[in-house]
Design goal:
Arc Repressor Mutant, subunit A; Rossmann fold; Response regulator transcription factor; single chain; NreC/VraR/RcsB-like_REC; phosphoprotein; six-stranded parallel beta sheet; alpha/beta; Sig_transdc_resp-reg_receiver; 2 domains; 14% strand; transcription regulation
């Protein structure tokens, strides 16, 4: 049996931490090893306890959850991060992804979504709460209504095709077969994508693909 995922839980409300801890500790594959009452404590606790996963509230004293996420992503790049928040807010959602979070869970449905989000994060998969889809659609329709231009693409059409397929989980061999190109060509395009977009791994590439609308959340 594999060891349970070690979780750091940060929220400035002790009652919230207690409730979330009950949810997590009830799962055999998850265990809370440290708690923090603000973002700065979370960064220090991560250094001390070396968790596998950090769950951060967005609105916290000293360092916000977003600021703590950026610092943790810089210091401990292998640490998975989830944001736990009461805010169903597009700006916070995109800032969370940009800060290095693997997912965004609303407190109002944490009892339903949080465990699934933790497991997805540890698999290296992004987790988006269901309302995200509606938020993204509203934003897109607003841009269309206002006549806003979409930004110029930083990648070629072929790179975009490969980006989408990689984000959907296809292997280089499968992509090569789908696009009738060699595996070596696929690998070259993948390397160009990571360099052009300043991405480190497939999770970041998937976040980018969602952000620009290539795949559905």
């Amino acid at each position: 049996m594999t060891a349970p995922t070690r979780v750091l839980l940060a929220d400035d409300h002790a009652l919230v931490r207690r409730g979330v801890r009950l949810i997590l500790d009830n799962e055999p594959d998850l265990t809370v090893v440290a708690e923090a009452g603000d973002g700065a404590e979370a960064v220090e606790a991560a250094r001390t306890h070396a968790p596998d996963l950090a769950i951060l509230d967005i609105a916290m004293p000293r360092l916000t959850g977003l600021q703590a996420a950026r610092e943790l992503a810089r210091r401990q790049p292998d640490l998975r991060i989830l944001m736990l928040t009461m805010y169903d807010n597009e700006q916070y959602f995109f800032e969370a992804l940009a800060a290095g979070a693997s997912g965004y869970v609303l407190k109002s449905v944490a009892d339903r979504d949080l465990v699934e989000a933790c497991r997805a994060a540890m698999r290296g998969e992004p987790f988006l709460y269901p309302g995200t889809v509606n938020t993204l659609i509203r934003s897109y329709l607003d841009r269309l209504r206002d006549g806003a231009d979409l930004p110029a693409k930083p990648i070629t059409d072929r790179e975009e095709e490969i980006l989408k397929l990689v984000a959907e989980g296809h292997t280089s061999k499968q992509i090569a077969d789908l696009l009738y190109i060699s595996v070596k060509t696929v690998e070259r395009h993948r390397a160009n994508l990571f360099q052009k977009l300043a991405l480190r791994d497939r999770l970041e590439l998937t976040r980018y693909a969602i952000r620009v609308g290539l795949i559905e959340p």
